[in-house]
Amino acid sequence: MTRFRLVVIGVCIAALAATAAATASQASHAKQSKREAVSGSVSIIGIWTGPEQKRFQAVLDGFQKLYPNVKAKYTSGGDNTPTILATAIQGGNPPDLASIGQPGLLRDFANQGSIKPIQFARATAARNYTPDWIKLGTVKGKLYGLFFKGANKSTVWYSTSAFKAAGAKPPKTWPALLSAANTIRASGTPAFSIGAADGWTLTDLFENIYLRQAGPARYDQLTAHTIPWTHPTVKAALKTMASVLASNNMYGGTSGALQTDFPTSVNNVWAKPPKAGMVIEADFVPGVATTKAAAIKDYNVFEFPSIGGSKPSVVGAGDIVVMFKDSPASRALVTYLASPAAATIAAKYAPGYSSPNKNVKPSAYSDVLNRATAIQLAHARTFRFDLSDLQPSAFGGTVGQGEFKLFQDFVKNPSDVNGIAAQLEAAAKKAYK
Amino acid sequence: MSATVHPESVPELKEPGRWRRYVVTAGFLAPAAVMLGVWVVYPTIYTAWRSLYDRSGDNFIWFDNYKTIFTTDILVTAVKNNALWVAVVPAFVTAIGLIFGVLTEKISWSVAFKTAVFMPMAISLFAAGVIWRIMDQKEPERGTVNAMIGVVSDWVNPPGPLPSAFSASPTLTGSDSQGFTLRRPVAPGGTALMPLTGIPPEDVPAGAEQAVQPEPQSGGITGVVWRDFKPGGGTIGKVEPQELGLPGVTVELLDSGGAQVRSTTTDPDGTFAFEKLAPGAYRAKIGAQTFQAPFEGIAWLGPSLITPAAMIAYIWVWAGFAMVVIAAGLAAIPRDTLEAARTDGATEWQVFRRVTVPLLAPVLSVVFITMLINVLKVFDIILSVAPGSVQDDANVIALAMWRTSFGGVNDFGLGSAIAVFLFLLVIPILLLNVRRFRREV
User: Fold this and answer.
1) B108 backbone dihedrals φ, ψ, rounded to 5°
2) Which residues are CB-neighbours of B27 under 8 A, at least 6 positions away?
3) pLDDT of residue A287
4) Of A35, A431, B170, B261, whose CB is crowded by the most CB atoms within 10 A?
5) pLDDT digits (tens, 9 = 90+) for A276-301
């Protein structure tokens, strides 16, 4: 290649780049003025409280920098959000947008016609999410819900000092988990801290076991209740679960575990010296700990172990943004929330957030463990939504009833596999009627 | 009066006067009437109306919601618990109020006492519930109530040095409550290996040294009690490097009949020795007191004790109210009646039983009936004391109504039907109270 040709190519490239930059800057100017043309206000009621609320506020601040003429106001409804929304719909005055935690509620709202489809954000969502997430937000072929926050529930958190004192290693398979548990117990620390006072910790454990042991196809069938809870695969999963729930395996024994709520179960593992070796719960575990401990030095995480050679799978959950009132401002915010920019602000804000958005760069997560669990979630090949969240709420989402209650009964008496399976099926049947 | 003075002006004066009086009356009544209408009358009527519709509120289903109430188990625990509340709480509150009321008459620092007992009334019932929920925590280090019981319990049954230890191998059988015994008898000249495990590093007694395999001794039994664990597990039943002896453990020697022959305590390396024994078969045992666990706490918030726990919180709040009302009633009792009784030679107890209580009866019944109505609709204290997992066991009618309407099921139709049912239950007591008010007027 001669020098002349190189120069020509160089000039051409420079010229092209300049044009491209010019068009880009023109385009961005055009985009900005288009954004400024959007005005109005958006009210959002959501389940995020405390630090979660502050995180979302940071995202809204980012949104308002882009859309200076839109006023976005977030009100926290906490766990009562579904009730608040149901009441607001009855009263004819729902917010513009809402964030909810249950795809079942999304389906209910869509079927009632109280929420509007968000097809306009479909292309953005398709670019940024794996198909499983889009499928979960779709009702009757139309996109209704956008997952802004995800949770990876296939994680087991452990106390490094308990593992070190016992000479145990993070297990990769179920038998290895049980043998590690025995060793930890022999070292004088109960192996597990189970927050059984909150029933959902138990359904999460069951779902992880079921997805691995029975496979994703069966998982979908059980989710849709096309196979009964008395199915042999369910009973087998319950038997596997019982091996964790032995009274001497849990901190405080059976009665103590039933009195332990989720935050306490985490603090038990974080405590110095640790009161228990492991807590089997989601990626949000470090966020609820009030006992001070350092990642990696004091606590660490491993993937929920494989059962019977199962492939890596993730059981997860997520918070869904839905739209009650269609307006340019609402549309702008929904589209913004589907973008990597919004998710990156949320991820950078503080550890404890996992975006289902696969285009968020790993570097956005400052915390090493947070980064690992978030990436595992956003890129999971087999991803299944938390089964209990997909059930009618009387069965899968109500404190002291249905699944939550029956799995607590199972903790009380883990040998009664058949009895619990029968009761689960009876409760499911009633709720599906 | 004026009519007799100016008979001709009566119609003019009377007419505007009556109208003005109506307007003034209506004006004074209006704010209250509007409030009552908006917040009591309309919701009551709408609730009754809503109870005839299904969950979505679109279909009129007549009395199907009421049928559901009486044909399913939705209200069984609730009605049972409500009955328990009605049977226990008003009586307790009245009795405690009466005792406190009488006491405050006798003590000199009654103002301080009354203030202390009345204080809970200043807190919202919900906050009181939260306080009790924290105090009722199971772990003694978290819950005040169990901490107090724990102090007494640990004093009566002092915890042993190795509360969480258990046998490492099948050669040592037994349980924490029976103690652990070697399965095989040992003859003099033999050794007794007693492996224990499940001991957290911080529970290993101070001064523990590397465990030592005991040397056999002719005419005696030697042995070792040690923490049969090293990182990774180690070989069970074998004294290995890194495994510590357990000093200060009491080892008993039993003869073949099970009677204790001797006892000794272990050395820093975990070894022990019984010298100069008569020939025969012996068993080595570590007694149960070594494994005595510290008080673990009573599950106040567990399914079986949650209703009593909520009742205690409720009584704690309302005792102050009862005391103040009853004390006021006591102050109004004519002193000379009491004096007359005392002069006639009645003992204090007789004065209380035969004079004070009968004279107080109207006040006591006010307290009792007020509590009866309150207890029938008891709700917030249970919601705040009972964790979600036991709300089913602590259920009462009002809570069932709330949980059906707002607790995730969101069935406003069924919830309204339960509300109407509760309303009907309260009405008889309400009528009783209204009748009493009339009589008093």
Assistant:
1) -85, -30
2) none
3) 83
4) A431
5) 999 999 998 988 899 999 989 999 99
Q: Which CATH superfamily, name and number, covers A155-315+389-432?
A: Periplasmic binding protein-like II (3.40.190.10)
Instruction: Decide if B388 and A404 are in contact by the 8 Å CB cutoff.
Output: yes
Q: Above 60 in pLDDT, residue B200?
A: yes
- Nearest neighbour of A167 by CB, restricted to B166, B231, B296: B231
Chain B residues with beta carbon closer than 8 angstroms to that of A165: 201, 231
Mean pLDDT of the region B41-62: 90
B224: nearest Cα among B203, B206, B208: B208
B159 located within any domain: no
Q: How many domains does chain B have?
A: 3
Could you give the CA distance from residue A175 to residue A126 in angstroms, rounded to a whole number? 39
What is the distance between the terminal CA atoms of chain A, rounded to a whole angstrom?
A: 77
Q: How many residues does chain A have?
A: 433
Task: List the single residue in A166, A182, A397 with the smallest CB-CB distance to B231.
Answer: A166
The average confidence (pLDDT) of chain B is: 88
CATH class of A39-152+316-384: alpha beta
pLDDT at A1 over 50: no
* A256 contacts in chain B (CB < 8 Å): 138-139, 296
Amino acid at site B411: D
What is the H or E stretch that residue B172 is in? strand B172-175
B389·A404 Cβ contact <8 A: yes
Q: Same domain for B222 and B329? A: no
In a domain, B194, yes or no: yes
Residue A236 vs residues A211, A212, A386, B83: alpha-carbon distances, Å: 12, 12, 19, 42
B 115-174: CB under 8 A from A? 137-139, 164, 166, 168
Percent of chain B with pLDDT over 90: 48
Per-residue pLDDT, B44 = 94
Do A255 and B299 lie within an 8 Å CB cutoff? Answer: yes
Q: Are residues B176 and B273 in the same domain?
A: yes
- CATH code assigned at B306: 1.10.3720.10
**Banded model confidence at residue B3, pLDDT cuts 50, 70, 90:** very low
Indicate whether B171 and B287 sit together in one domain: yes
- Closest in A80, A394, A399 to B391, CB measured: A399
Q: What is the pLDDT of residues B402-417, one digit of tens each?
A: 988 887 677 889 999 9
Please tell me the distance from the alpha carbon of residue A223 to that of residue A43, in angstroms, as a whole number: 33
ipTM: 0.75
Torsion of CA A265, A266, A272, A275, to 10 degrees: 30
Going by their DSSP bridges, the two strands A382-385 and A313-323 should be labelled as parallel
- Give how far the C-alpha of residue B83 lies from the chain's centroid of Cα atoms, to the nearest Å: 18
The residue extents of the domains of chain A are 39-152+316-384, 155-315+389-432
For B:174-233, CB contacts with A below 8 A are 197-203, 229-233
Write down the number of H helices and E strands in chain B. Answer: 15, 9
Q: What percentage of chain A carries pLDDT values higher than 90?
A: 67
Determine how β-strand A155-159 pairs with β-strand B250-254: unpaired
Supply the DSSP string of B22-73, one letter for each residue: HHHHHHHHHHHHHHHIIIIIHHHHHHHHHTTB-SSS-SB-TTHHHHHHHHSG
CB A179 within 8 A of CB A166: no
